[in-house]
Amino acid sequence: MLHPAFVEIHLGHLRHNLEQVRRRLGPAEPIAVVKADAYGHGLVPVARTLQEAGIRHFAVARLSEAVELREAGITGSILLLGAAFPEDLAACVAHEVEVTVSSPLLAEAVCAAAPRYGPLRVHVKVDTGMGRLGIWPEEAPEIIRRLEQTPGVTLVGLCTHLATAEQPGDPFVQEQLERFEQLWRQVGDAFAVRHVANSGALFTLPSSYWSDSRQQARIGAALYGYLPRPELPGADELRPVMRFVACIVQVRTVPPGTTISYGRTWTAPGWRRIAVVGAGYGDGIPRRLSNRGQVGLHGHRFPIVGAVCMDMTMIDLGDPETAPDVQEGEPVVFFGEGGPSIAEVARWAETIPYELSCAAARRVPRRYQEQRQSVSSSVENF
Ligand SMILES: *Cc1c(COP(=O)(O)O)cnc(C)c1O
């Protein structure tokens, strides 16, 4: 079957990024975060590649993702980052999924479940300032003691999440770290490891992962080659893993005054060559790119004109006299090699790169590649 839109997933780049992450982490061990279908890159192929490259710890957001990993033969530890429901704890035992205890209620449920269903490995999450999940540092010692005394419960990690890790020098992040370290000094003996850093912290805050080998870091974005702020020093060590390509489905010449797409938000200023491209917001192309985004074609950039539709997007190839000679079926690059970077597109769409990678829809096939391929060879592939 031919697909007008697809994404290429460069597994070689994933391995390269993992090496860079490891180099930065030093003695700390990475927990590879593969939630949300590995940020859109495909849960199982990404996890298998990482496991083959030596990753021993994975993290997901939903129990269904953990089960999918186990069914695919992932043998490393799998940490459920999201809030588990008490009803899910039996399945966590059955699939050997580690649970994040992020509320007093869940701690109670774990203490009730372990003697009933079997051994449960848990991480205790404290809220030091993220304002999302976690127990308060003040109530933590009591809860940890209770977990520690419950047969069948193993305390694995103490963790917290940073709110501003991608802002170098932010004083709030230091406050969060201090709160965490203070608690760690108090209760650290009960745990095997602790983990605080995410991808932002990996580039801005070595003190959040670098002090000893009892530290781990939960790394997602950096593995896929993106950071929330691409201008962070060192971010250029990473290579983007996803490339979004769609094919031209029609090319037409239109007279001056022709309007393009819903709402007639763009009017041809003269004779124009317009290409209709087979990807739209139903594929994960932000509608926000209407009249403001660009795509790559033949090594040049062309503007998106008119409203992005559900299945199609129009681009302006220019004056018919000078427009490039393009054929139906030719690929254009929405982001990745041969087009704008995902960071540029994210800026136009007023979002962050991994909202775009997560947005690549299910109907957009993932094509896994070991080596980098040029635009022309992926045409043959198509
Ligand atoms: C998603 C997530 C991460 C990974 O963050 P990145 O910035 O993608 O590295 C780490 N910790 C928690 C709790 C998360 O939810």
Automatic annotation (TrEMBL):
Its cofactor is pyridoxal 5'-phosphate. Residues 241-369 form the Alanine racemase C-terminal domain. The active site is at K35 (proton acceptor), Y262 (proton acceptor). Its EC number is 5.1.1.1. Keywords: Isomerase, Pyridoxal phosphate. The keyword Isomerase applies. One of its GO terms (biological process) is D-alanine biosynthetic process. It catalyses: L-alanine = D-alanine. InterPro entries: Ala_racemase (IPR000821), Ala_racemase/Decarboxylase_C (IPR009006), Ala_racemase_C (IPR011079), Ala_racemase_N (IPR001608), Ala_racemase_pyridoxalP-BS (IPR020622), PLP-binding_barrel (IPR029066). SUPFAM superfamilies: Alanine racemase C-terminal domain-like (SSF50621), PLP-binding barrel (SSF51419). One of its GO terms (cellular component) is cytosol. The modification N6-(pyridoxal phosphate)lysine is found at K35. It is an enzyme of class 5 (isomerase). Substrate binds at R132, M310. Pfam families: Ala_racemase_C, Ala_racemase_N. Pathway: Amino-acid biosynthesis; D-alanine biosynthesis; D-alanine from L-alanine: step 1/1. GO terms for molecular function: alanine racemase activity; pyridoxal phosphate binding. CDD domains: PLPDE_III_AR. Catalyzes the interconversion of L-alanine and D-alanine. May also act on other amino acids. Belongs to the alanine racemase family. This is Alanine racemase. It comes from Rhodothermus marinus (strain ATCC 43812 / DSM 4252 / R-10) (Rhodothermus obamensis).
